[in-house]
Amino acid sequence: MALARIRRGESGMNYWPGFVDALSTLILSIIFLLSVFVVVQFYLQQEVQGKDTALQHLNGQIALLSKLLSMEKTSKADLENQLGGLKSSLAAAQNDRDRYKGLYEGAAAAQMTAESKLNELSGQLEGEKENSSKAFGQIDLLNQQVAALREQLAALGTALDVSEKKTKDSEERISELGQRLNVALAQHVQELSSYRSDFFGKLREVLGNRPDIRIVGDRFVLQSEIFFDTGRADLKPEGRTELDKVAAAIVELESQIPSEIPWILRVDGHTDVRPIIGQFKSNWDLSAERAISVVQYLVGKGVKPSRLVAAGFGEFQPIDSGTTEDAYRRNRRIEFKLTER
Known about the structure:
The chain contains five helices and five strands. By secondary structure, the chain is of the alpha+beta class.
C-alpha cells in the first residue's frame, strides 16, 4: 500500500484514501448510533408496556370501586325508601290512634245524648197515646171518604167505557173516510192519466210524426235542437212555432180537466255530459234557463202560470249512457210531464 502511495505520490497528490477512511469512520459512527437508538427504543418499549399493564390494573380497580359505589348507593336508596315507609306507617298509626280516640269520646257524648233523647221520647210517647184516639176518629172519616171516591171512580169508569166506544166508532168512520179518499185520489190519478194520454196524443197530432219527438213513459220528450242553438237558451224562430202548437194544446187541456183535479205541467231541461263553453257557468244553469224560456213563452201564449213549473237537471239524468254523438243528442232534450200538484 505504501508502495502504491509512493508511486501515486510520484504522479501527484492523491486524496482518495483519506476520503475512504473518513467515509468508513462515518458509517461506523452511524451504525453505532443506530444500535444505541434500537437499544434505547427497546428499553422504552418495555417501560411503556409496563405502564400500560399498570394502567389497565388501575382501570380495573376503578371499575370495581365504581360498581361497589353503585351498590352502596342502591342500598342507601332502599334504606331511605324503607325509612320513608316506616315514617308513613307511624304517621298512619298516630292518625288511627287520634281517630279512635275521637270516636270513643264521640260515642260517650252520643250515649249521654241518647239517654237524654230517650227521656224526651218517653214524654212524647205519652202525648202520642192521647193523639192516637183522635187519629182513630180521623181514620173512620177517611174510610167514609174513600168509599165515596170509589163510587165516583165507578161512575168515571162507566163514562170512560162510553167514551171509548165513541172513539172506536170515530176511528171506524175515519178509516172509512180514508178509504173513500184513497178511492177518490185513485180516480183523480186515473182521470189525470187519461187526460195525459189525450194531451200527449194531441201534441203528437199537432207536432207531427217526427223522429226527434217521442213519448217516454209519462213524459213527452223533444230534442233541444228544435228550440235552441248549441250552448244557448234563446228560443229559435222554428222553436217558437212548435211551442205555439204546444201552448194551444195546453190551453185546450185546461178547459177539459175539472178544476178539482190539482195538476201542473212540468217543463224539464236536460243537457249532455260535455262541459259547457259560453255564457253559462254549468250545464245545470243552461238546462234551467232553457226550461224557464219555454215556460215564459207558454205563459205569453195564454197558459196559466199556476199550471207550469220549470226545472233544470243538467247532465245528471241521461236517457242514454253512451258517448257517441247520437247519445249526446238524445240526452239534450226538453220534457213535458203532466203530474199532480
